[in-house]
Amino acid sequence: MKTRVVYIAGLGLIGASIALGIKRDHPDVEIWGYNRGEDSRRIALEKGMVDRVTDDFLSLAPEADVIILAVPIQQTIAFLQDLSRIPLKKDVIVTDAGSTKFEIVKAAENYLTDRGISFVGGHPMAGSHKSGASAADVNLFENAYYIFTPSNLTTDQTIPTLKEILSGLHARFIEIDAKEHDRVTGQISHFPHVLASSLMEQAADYARDHEMVQQFAAGGFRDMTRIAESEPGMWTAILMTNPAEILERIEDFKLRLDKVSELIRQEDGDQIWNFFNHGRLKRKEMNIHKRAGVDSFYDLFVNVPDEEDAILGILELLRGTSVVNIHINEENREDISGILQITFKNREDLEKSAHIIETNTSYQVFID
Amino acid sequence: MKTRVVYIAGLGLIGASIALGIKRDHPDVEIWGYNRGEDSRRIALEKGMVDRVTDDFLSLAPEADVIILAVPIQQTIAFLQDLSRIPLKKDVIVTDAGSTKFEIVKAAENYLTDRGISFVGGHPMAGSHKSGASAADVNLFENAYYIFTPSNLTTDQTIPTLKEILSGLHARFIEIDAKEHDRVTGQISHFPHVLASSLMEQAADYARDHEMVQQFAAGGFRDMTRIAESEPGMWTAILMTNPAEILERIEDFKLRLDKVSELIRQEDGDQIWNFFNHGRLKRKEMNIHKRAGVDSFYDLFVNVPDEEDAILGILELLRGTSVVNIHINEENREDISGILQITFKNREDLEKSAHIIETNTSYQVFID
């Protein structure tokens, strides 16, 4: 069998981590990489993440069996157009890693039809605050959703072939319609981002005349504005390429605010209570408590006393286990302290750890 | 000097923790407690938090030198009215612990004028997901803001006397106009709560037709809806007693959403970028990074490698230090991992710990 060539455009965190994941299961696959910046290109080559690099995207595309575009959304669309102008291998598979999918799928269908090229949209749902090839992590996608959004250029072989090549990512592959992807991420990610940045903007404006805003901003406000600190470029591209869904969610949300306003004006305590209680019950029902969705982590809850070194004692018991995160859950009222939440990367570590804590301490342990 | 009597109405988490705080600096002060439910009454008495208890609020009020109302807002207002009907000690000081202040101050001025009673509103800004006297913690208010909102029944002696009696809480006492208190907490607490519950309601409704909402809800969404799980009763009372400020913030916010919608419709990428970047810069500027406002915690940031037992290694170095919380900071994109954030209860522990980590590891340490 001839050596297959996977060409990854963009050797940032996502592209370079995909390269490592492919190499884990397929040391035989040859990986080529494009990157505009020199640093990540050099690091990816030196560390053996890729076998060959270029700063000229089109130069290596004609020889590739699979092309993975892991560049910003607008660049992805531009590269799809560029690919339409050069000869590519027969049966080449093209995919991408952008955060919105409909516009990208539309661009692929627009530029690549009737060329014998197969295309499927891709969205590996993982990330980090780190960036660049130097931050690449072979486990970045472990248990994370990796969404494929089929196009009319997706054949019966496209997704199975990609799943096979990407098996070393240990991701959870899933297929969704591109428009539905954008609707769902619009609701749980893109629109909330607009909310967070708007709240931050509002509070900052208010703080000019009400200086205590700065001092009293607490846990709740901090949580609600955390994502407002994200890199603006990516979120601008998301709003530009998923406008209809986000606009619709904004209008829907304004009506909900109007409804709350009306209840406040009517001094309708019962209905206000129902409103808050509904949100509370719905959140408790959500998978959010079972697994952190995209993060795909496994959580253990331990009811520890508020004692010095309690966390240390637990971690000593779990020495050698891959603890992804650990924190004391701040809940309710004006938040402080509570239940110790430990996050693991897989169910095996979770269950093993629950057993260890249960047999070695008197603390209550929950998995929910 | 005669033994002073402090009468605390409500032996829940707040009332019972205040009792412990008073006893710490003033073992000589006699503390009496009212509580409707029997459990907290019994626990507070058995554990010596209070010296005497009742389930009849008015019965002990006439003999008290200081009355602290630590019951729900509506109950606080009802008790102020009840107090107007019975004889109280000359120069008695009445205060409360409610989350909104203007309505309570107004009620006090309305019911207690011309009686020789002095009143100041109070808002100790701390809490926990735990409740009842059994959760009482002498350190609950350590470094937390304790806000006084003067009324026209506040004399020159009212606040100094309360500060002296409450010195054992180790809180940071601060005076603000009641209306301004409600404006500021409306912006950074009450209105964000409406946002979080509305977002939760919207996503739950959307999930009925778009089931992947459940699966893909990730870190950002989780953070933004966390406070929606709070106990509905308290938040209903807050909306009922701070209606004008919250309504005004809702209308202001809708205009901000309209502005974003307009930018999306105009496909104005530059202005969308500016919008996100503004939120980012403003949040970075906020005190939120220095100290968690209300929580009043001190944070240390350690750039640890993504290695097994890295957290354990750090905690071993800090054995015996009062670590309030520890977690890996999830930032940016689709969040995973990052910087280890350790929260301490005071600056001394923070600085000592920073020094210990710096001298015993090669990790970068930040205090910001």
Structure report:
Chains A, B: It catalyses: prephenate + NAD(+) = 3-(4-hydroxyphenyl)pyruvate + CO2 + NADH. Chains A, B: It comes from Streptococcus himalayensis. Two copies of one chain form a homodimer. Chain A is α/β, with parallel strands linked by helices and 368 residues long. Chain A has three domains: 5-176, NAD(P)-binding Rossmann-like Domain (Rossmann fold); 181-265, 6-phosphogluconate dehydrogenase C-terminal like domain (6-phosphogluconate dehydrogenase C-terminal fold, Orthogonal Bundle), CATH 1.10.3660; 289-366, RRM (RNA recognition motif) domain (Alpha-Beta Plaits), CATH 3.30.70.330. Helix content of chain A is 47%, strand content 17%. Chain A has 14 helices and twelve strands. The first copy, chain A, has helices at residues 13-25, 38-46, 57-60, 73-83, 102-112, 158-165, 178-209, 212-216, 219-225, 232-241, 243-265, 269-285, 310-317, 347-360, and strands at 5-9, 30-34, 52-54, 66-69, 93-96, 118-124, 145-150, 172-175, 298-303, 323-330, 338-344, 364-366. Chain A has an eight-stranded mixed beta sheet with strand order 3-2-1-4-5-6-7-8, with helices on both faces. In chain A, helix 4 (73-83) packs parallel to helix 5 (102-112) and helix 7 (178-209) packs across helix 11 (243-265). Chain A is globular and about 65 Å long. The two termini of chain A are 47 Å apart.
